[in-house]
Amino acid sequence: MNVLHMIVFFGWSVFVVLSALNQNILDQFWQIFGVARWADLLVYISLIVLFYFYINLLNNHTKDKHNLTRLVSRHAILDTYETEKENIKNFKNTDYKDEFVLNIRVYNEAEAVWSVIDEILAAWFRKLVLINDWSQDNTLQVLQEKKKQYPHALLIILSHTINRGGWAANQTWYNFIKKYWDELKIKRFVGFDSDGQMDIKDMEVFIDRIRNEEVRVAHLIEKKADMSVYKNRPNDLYIWSRFVYWWKAKNIPKSRKIILFISKIVTRIFYWTKVSDPHNGYRVVSLPSLRKINLTADGMHYANELNEQIKKLKFKYEEVPVHIRYTDYSLTKWQKNSNSIKLAMEMIYRKVFFR
Q: Is 349 helix (H, G, I), strand (E, B) or coil?
């Protein structure tokens, strides 16, 4: 905010406050110009001017947050790669599942993340990228112990130097994979949670879907079909949904179901993306598609940013039903229902006012 902004913003604010306390000030002001009762006009002009400066200030603040997140993310990526580059280079793929990398953001999840890692590795997925978002408990210690426990697996731990939120972890995931995907020798990116809600067994459903898709595409290529046609193209990503069969969704509080239903409607209005479960992070993305995605979210609306990219980049996607495990622990980690109001305000701000 420059000097002119300070003078106008604070000066006008003081004038509006004084005028509100004593309306005679407005009359005396307009008498200078020979106008007696234009007080309302001044109030309306004041509100417009103050709102403009507020949005201007908010935009600058948002951009500063973006820059800070990029700095923290970049530092984590470069620092970790220097430590892990030999392990990445020497890791040999031995199974189809080695073509997948599971990405897990972690913040104060020492109680649950150890069992999540055990389940993933027991299912023979051996490549994990773990984003420790400056946890304040012993989460980092748990991750390091698991890394020692499974020397046959590739566990890459990226630590943020300050806590930046789930949206920053998303950026660190995507940028790390986009930068080093050739060295990692992978073909698919998988988003996964650290609180135990997601079931690694659902990945078998995904693998069945993708193999069927590969057979379909190979058959079309053999027939020399036009692969640029949308319906012929292979899927760019798979979106895992609790509501493909909405009547089967269990253990979800009614208030949460209502909020998720509203979020589905809002997603269609704002982003024109028809997804049944817009706030589920269990997503599998092909790496050619991943390279096109540009995530910049630095707030609660991060969950919808990929939905916006789906429409913008004309991705072809398929929704796959999953079995989310709702435990007492995972339910305590849920965001408050009141945060949905904040999310809605952020969405409106990003779509209408942010420049």
A: helix
Q: At residue 171, what is the residue type?
A: Q
In the three-class reduction of DSSP (H, G, I as helix; E, B as strand; rest coil), residue 7 is classed as: helix
Rounded to whole angstroms, the Cα distance separating 131 from 46 reads: 46
Contact 177, 290 (CB under 8 A): yes
At 180 the three-state DSSP class reads helix
Give CA separation, 146 vs 84, 121, 192, in Å: 15, 10, 17
What sign has the CA pseudo-torsion 94, 100, 105, 110? Answer: negative
Residues near 168 by beta carbon (within 8 Å), at least 6 away in sequence: 69, 72, 73, 133, 160, 298
- Distance between CA atoms of 131 and 112, rounded to whole angstroms? 15
Nearest alpha-carbon partner for 172 in 81, 279, 284: 81
Could you tell me how far CA 29 lies from the centroid of its own chain? 51
Q: What distance in Å separates the CA atoms of residue 273 and residue 266, rounded to the nearest whole number?
A: 10
From first to last of its 355 residues, the chain has per-residue pLDDT tens of: 567 777 777 887 887 788 778 877 777 776 776 555 556 667 777 888 888 889 999 999 999 999 999 999 999 999 999 999 999 999 999 999 999 999 999 999 999 999 999 999 999 999 999 999 999 999 999 999 999 999 999 999 999 999 998 889 999 999 999 999 999 999 999 999 999 989 999 999 999 999 999 999 999 999 999 999 999 999 999 998 877 655 455 566 677 677 777 778 878 887 778 888 887 788 999 999 999 998 888 877 777 788 888 989 999 999 998 888 877 777 676 556 666 677 778 877 888 888 8
d(CA 97, CA 207): 9
In this structure, which long-range contacts are made by residues 8-15, counting pairs with CB atoms below 8 Å and at least 24 apart in sequence? Answer: 8/49, 8/53, 9/50, 9/53, 9/57, 12/46, 12/49, 12/50, 13/50, 15/46
